[in-house]
Amino acid sequence: MTAKHVITFSTWFYLGIFFLYLFGPLAVMGVTAFNTPSYPQAFPFEAFTWHWFAVLSEDKDVLYGFTNSIKIGVLVVCLSVPLGLAGALVMQMVYSRARSLYYLVVVSPVLTPGVIIGISTVIFWRDFTTLTGMRFMYDGTVLVVLGQSSFIAAYCMLIILARLQRFDRGLQEAALDLGASHTQVFFHILLPFLRPAMLSAAVLAFLSSFENYNTTTIAILADKTLTTVLAGRVRQGSTPAISALAVVIISVTVIAAILYEVLRRRDDARKAIQLRNAATAEAMELSPA
């Protein structure tokens, strides 16, 4: 056996172990969702059933937590993406000497444990609402959105900042020289350039909010989300209905990813056709009659 064969075998062996570690639990969980025993059991497989999906559809706590998590995730996106965009724009405007300090301040929530963020959010807004009389803000959903946005906005800022650093300032200066206002430059030049990063930041913000537990479990107060409901169920003893929920979430995620890839490739193909047609038209105009 040559060294090339050893390297090839080692590479494929490592990849096999890696994907087994990554997807093995998901495969086992998927099997338990369709197996008949009342306890999650993949082997032996007794009989195929849809029973646990029916049980899941009748579980009011899980369904309420799921819908509440989606609502919170959407609100976090609506708050975190604009904050991240503003933070990235300010990062480009501050003096270079103050940029490091500003970066440390806005990124520090990412380095703070989620439990600390949750406790700080509850204490601050409890005292704030008591002093101002705005008791309606001392609500589990509001506190979770504010607590999660405090660090998810930093993720959004980093994504948008990476895109913003490739922005050609000459386009902005040319538009201003031609008479465009700063508002027009922002909405017609800068935002279209940052749109891919903002969409990526929105997806990341929603997923980070949906799966967050440490901050949520403290700031949610008496309310509940999917993660808090599942944590309580696991402590009491898991059932295949939880596996059925995981199968549903994974299926929706995979379908959404495939749909996005199909739409992206279709858009790329349409742009390629437009560029080819434009190049053909330009060549025909330049060709001698």
Give an account of the 3D structure.
With 289 residues, the chain is mainly α. The chain folds into two domains: 1-58, no CATH class; 60-240, MetI-like (MetI-like fold). The chain is 81% helix and 0% strand. It is globular and about 75 Å long.
Q: Count of DSSP helices?
A: 11
The name of the CATH superfamily of the largest domain reads MetI-like
Give the CATH class of the largest domain.
Mainly Alpha
Kindly report how far apart the N and C termini lie: 67 Å
The description of the largest β-sheet is: none
Query: The CATH topology of the largest domain is what?
Result: MetI-like fold
CATH architecture of the largest domain: Orthogonal Bundle
Low-confidence regions: none
Fraction of helical residues:
over 70%
Annotation, overall tally of beta strands: 0
Q: What structural class do helix, strand and pairing data support?
A: mainly alpha
Taken together, the total number of domains comes to: 2
